[in-house]
Amino acid sequence: MTSSNILSKRGQEAGKKPMRVDLEVYNQAIENQYDALKNPMGSFPMNVAENHLCWEMLQEKIQSITKSKNIPDWVSSYGDPAGVLSFREATARFLSKFLIHREIQADTLAFSAGATSVIEMTSFLLADHGDTAVIPAPSYPVYTADIGVIPGVRRYDLQTHVEIDDLKDGVPISIAQLEKAKTEIESQGSRFRMLILTSPDNPTGGIYSENQLHLLADWCIKNEIHLLVNEIYGLSRIDIHHPEIKSDYTNPIDFESFGQLMAERKNPFLHFWYSFSKDLGISGFRVGLLHSHNIDLINGYRNAGLSHCVSNYTQWILQEMLEDLDFMEKFIAANRKALTESYVIVIRSLRKLRIPYNPSYGSLFVWLDMSEFLKEESDQGQHELWLEIFEKTGILFTPGAGFGHQKKGLFRVVISSLSHQELAVAMERFTAYVMKKRKNKSLATKEL
């Protein structure tokens, strides 16, 4: 019996494609992870977007909830597929106070089991099979699968710039670029259905200004294109006034949540994504949400979302935690302080090495340029450099493949997956690698 008789075409395709191109190497790194005492020569996995910086603080809070409070009866029953009302209300208050700074209503929220599920569900409901989503490059590699595997939506990587330095004053996206993309997409028989932005951005750490968001919203509404802004890193923002890094921000951009614009316009083509995975460091809890004033979309989400529900027990624990606004305020401040310190540790080394990077406003990343070390400017050359860095240093960055950007030799560094002490050791190794690499390159040049 052939495999074609066992699986559908979709099943066969899924079996061939790994979730991530770096998954196999990541598993190697995890099995040999650095420990100062037990494994000082171990690896540093810095490729998966997880935030472990303040887990102990959150863990203590969650344990206090489970020890001191009785589980309500509703936890054991079926609930609203879009999220139980009390949880949606607690989340609405949390987002209103800490992120959006406008009052939002619980009936504009719908939940699913993680950000991936939210992106998949929203794409399924807003776009038809064969439609296209435009995403400014570089951007989150797994968007491709999130919008493509089930919804059948194509990804179009919009090239807004070439060099990292082009990002210093913000993402250089223009209406002319969008018009050109629309013409190209339509000439290929598809429909430009969605524009997806991430702010703060994955991987660059950039943000969109209030003026940019208004201009993009105007264009999308005029063309009946859905604008989706992913603020999954909305509370993971860098303190750009820190004395060691403030010189990087000569023309600082103020972060304004897209939710504010949505509150003003209440337009059916404007939508907002969020998840607790990154800002709270609980990716394993699997909780993501859609915020929209498009009630037809919310109703469709509820009716089609039964297989994507968040467990009631998870909703209850988070509801209890989110309702303690004093605790959440302290946690957000502690996380921002710890994240900024991680960022400074990395930037300190990059400056010393004169490695180009994009000054980050937020997210869990540094986007850096290692193109000077490429043997050839190709996907293969980029892959070989990424693998060499891991083999020589034990440091696993996120490879540039999949981010959709035209320039080769760019890598994403996750700064929140290690303690500050571990991160410092990793950057010492990275510094030694770069210095040796340059020395060898210099010697080879002299011999010529």
What does this protein structure show overall?
The protein is an alpha/beta fold and 448 residues long. It folds into two domains: 3-56 and 329-447, Aspartate Aminotransferase, domain 1, CATH 3.90.1150.10; 70-325, Type I PLP-dependent aspartate aminotransferase-like (Major domain) (Aspartate Aminotransferase, domain 2). The chain is 44% helix and 12% strand. It has helices at residues 3-6, 9-16, 23-31, 55-68, 85-100, 115-126, 143-148, 175-187, 210-222, 258-265, 295-304, 312-322, 325-353, 379-393, 420-447, and strands at residues 44-45, 109-112, 132-137, 154-159, 192-198, 226-230, 270-275, 288-292, 365-369, 395-396, 410-414. The termini are far apart.
Helix content: 40-55%
Which structural category do the helix and sheet elements fall into? alpha/beta
CATH class of the largest domain reads: Alpha Beta
As a whole number of angstroms, the C-alpha radius of gyration is: 22 Å
CA(first)-CA(last) distance:
59 Å
Q: Order of strands in the sheet with the most strands? A: 2-8-7-6-5-3-4
CATH architecture grouping of the largest domain: 3-Layer(aba) Sandwich
Cα shape: globular
Main pleated sheet: 7 strands, mixed
Number of helices in the DSSP assignment: 15
Oligomer: single chain
